Each structure stands twice: as C-alpha cells, then as structure tokens.
Amino acid sequence: MHLPLNIAELKSSEFNQATMCSRSIKDELRENLINKLDRRDIIFPGIVGYDDSVVPQIVNAILSRHNFILLGLRGQAKSRILRELVGLLDEQTPAVEGCEINDNPYAPICKACRLLIEERGDQAPVTFIPRDRRYVEKLATPDVTIADLIGDLDPIKAARGGHLLSDELTIHYGLLPRANRGIFAINELPDLASKVQVGLFNIMQEGDVQIKGYPIRMPLDVMLVFSANPEDYTARGKIITPLKDRIGSEINTHYPSSIEEAVEITRQEAWLARNGQAMHVPEFIMRAVEQVAFEARRDQRVDKRSGVSQRLPISAIENVISNAERRRFSSDEPGIVPRISDIYAALPSITGKLELEYEGEQRGAANVARDLVRSAVGKVFEEYFEHIDCSPIIAWFDDGGAIRVSDTDGAALCLKSFRQVNGLLAAAERSGLVDKSDSQILVAVCELILEGLHAQKKISRSEERGYIAAKPERRGQSYESFSRSRKIN
User: Fold this and answer.
1) Which fold has domain 7-252?
2) Smallest Cα–Cα separation from 46: which of 227, 265, 251?
3) Which has more confidence, 243 or 33?
4) How far is 317 from 339, CA to CA, in rounded Å?
5) What one-character DSSP code corresponds to residue 15?
6) What backbone phi and psi angles, to 5 degrees, belong to 400?
7) Where do the domains of the chain lie?
8) pLDDT of residue 487
9) Backbone dihedral region of 268: left (phi > 0), alpha (psi from -120 to 50 degrees) or beta?
10) How does pLDDT run across 77-111, given as a tens digit for each residue?
C-alpha cells in the first residue's frame, strides 16, 4: 500500500481532512473498541481473571472518553493493562514529518509545524507513526519535574535560531507533549510532587502551561491513564484534589479469585520451557505454589497493605523447576519432574516477595515462608486425598519408622525409601495422580502425601531425621484415637 508523502496526497487518501480533524484520540480508542466489541474480540489478550470485574469498567471508561486510573496492590497487572491499550489505536496515523509532538498535518499546534505548512503548503511532507510509538509511559518518582513532563526552555535552541527565550520555538518538549495524539501513562501517580500534578491537571483541562513563567497554549490531544497503589492513593493523600476531580474513572484491580485463574496466569507468564528438555510439572505442584500466595495474603504476619504480588508464584515455580532441573543433571533422570521438596528449595524466590508485620519479623522471613509452604501443601493434599485412607502410613511412623530423603536424590533412591513405608505407595496409586510406570511422578505424589500428613500434624519432619512419628500432643490425639475417629474407605 502506497502511503501519502505530503499533505496534497494525504487529502486524496482515506486520511482526509474531515476524518482526521473530527476524531480525537479518545474517539479513536472508542471507535476501535466498539469494532472489537462487535466482532466479539478479546479486548485485552493475556489478562486473566478480570473479565467480569476490571475489563467491563475499563470498557465503560473508554466508551465514556474518560481519563482513568487503575488502583491496585503490586503485581495486579496494572502496567500490563495500560500497555494493552495500544491495541485499540489505529495501526498507523499521519503526522507532520520531523515534528517532535506528532502534529496533525491538518491542524498543527506547534509553531515549527505551522511555519512549515505556511511555507510549503500542501507539499509539506508527512510521515506515518505506528501505534506502538504513540504510547508513552513514565514511572512517577519524587524527583520528576515539570520540565520532564511538560518541557523547558532550551537556551541553545534560542541562540542557534536567534529567538527570544519567550518564543515557542525555544521549547524542549517533555514527555506529555511528545505523547500528543497518543496515550500517556503514569505509573505510581501519588509519587509525583504536588506542583508537577498541578501541571498535569492544567494541561488536561485548560490545555495551557507556563514554562519558566511564559504562558503557552498547548491544546494537546492525549489520553491520560494512571496507576497507583490504593494505600498511597487514599492514606498518604498525595494525589491533589483538582487532579482527582479531573480523572473520569477510578478502577480497582485485584488478585486472582481462584487457584485455577492463578495457575493460568503463572503458566502464561513463567518461564517453563527449558531448551526443549523433557519436563512434566504435575498439576498439584502448580496448585501448591499458587496456594502459597493465597495463604500469604491471608496470613496475619504478612503486611496486607503491601499485598502479595502475583510475581511470587511466577518466580517460585521457575525456581522449583530449576531445582528439579539441577537434580536431573546430578542423578541422570530422564526428565524434569518437580516435587514438593523443590518448593522448599525455592524459598529464596518467596521471602523477598513478603513484607512482614512485627510478628512476622520476629519469626523471620524464611520461617514464615516455610510455614506458608507447609500450609499450602496441606490444603492441596486435602483436595486430592480427602477420601483416601492414610492411617497405615501414620501407623508405620508411630511404630518407630523414619525415612530421610533429599531434594537431590534421584527417583530410584527415593522409591527405595518410600517402599519401606507401609501403605505409602498404595495411597499414591489410589489417588489417580500417577502411573505405576512413571517413577518420577510416583515420587512426587509420595512426597505430597508425606508433606500433607506433616502439615496436618499426623507425622513430623526435622532437618536431621527426616519424616518421623508426630508426638501425640502435637497432633492433639494418639494414633489409636485417630484411627477410631477416622472413617476408613
């Protein structure tokens, strides 16, 4: 397709003056969104768990031509959603060639473009801006200045061009003008200084700014979107009232509401492929890793205001697989199959994601993380083994049995130990999670059983002795009373 090279060719193309002068960036987003809705297309590909909550609110905001803000704790895909808005822009749009602010060839707002078109008329050259270059993002920090966002006077430009400092031609444009006819996103909005926020709302509403005391009219065509942590937004009060008043919609994000959604997100985001190596990640391992994040969000020792990012299970499962990969190299196993012990080996990817309250700090991040893993594995164990009798396993430990396995032991060595435990392999096979011929999966299921019984305080585990009998006072009852009270299937 031949693209117009100047304004004369542009006028006779689909990018005619009537179309381009009547449609703002917000109209463009609205029309393209309506087309997607008509085609039943996915609005935000890769965004999971927001179909019935966040996405409809964003759709409403765009249909209303609102600037909007996403409020949510860390790791809730706020930045990703903002970047996905690029998909609602036209594939490309014409602009005056060489313009720093992507000026509309039919209605330029910068002085340099106006002078160019006055001089060359319809022969003024045009260029086409792809959609990805029409998205500008800035992470707000306290040191961001008006000059960074709006612009500043450039003495060098003034000297070279022989202009007065008050001349518009001396401006070095900031990020916001450079986002003209596009989307400008600011992450962590509360961290902007108040005087910078004043510059934002002034240009949003009135379209004019003052640079070094010189008032300049800049009717920019920009879609402004923001993100913020709700704790900062409401408690610290750093978003000034006039700016809040000019943000059309306030949309709250959230963490996944179910394990299934969380697993889908992690499978999508985590690096699971390991250069074509044979690998199988059991579903119960994925669910256990996700459950760690769910347990952390409920735990009183973890700071609720900070949140527990969805990056926790993503990083954790990558570390879990890496530990299984390391074991494969040392034990010559045929493939990579993670186990429960690999989750404990992935503690370094968990502890850094937790902001602890005073009680948690006293306990220590590593100990809190171990508690969370144990609790998570216990929940997953209950899901799979609720109706499977594990009393023979408990009885074996109560009779003095003990086994010790390492996360570096190969499947054959682990099975040699597990066969000693009365009823362990039988319970694993009855679970339906394993094929007898797959020794690696069998080992993983056996570890799930042992760790699940440990989480329920039916057996105990120590770093020195491995899995051993639980003391009656720790489980709350003796094995005999437990056997009488438990229904045998």
Assistant:
1) Rossmann fold (3.40.50)
2) 265
3) 33
4) 11
5) S
6) 105, 0
7) 7-252, 259-485
8) 33
9) alpha
10) 999 999 999 999 999 999 999 998 999 999 898 88
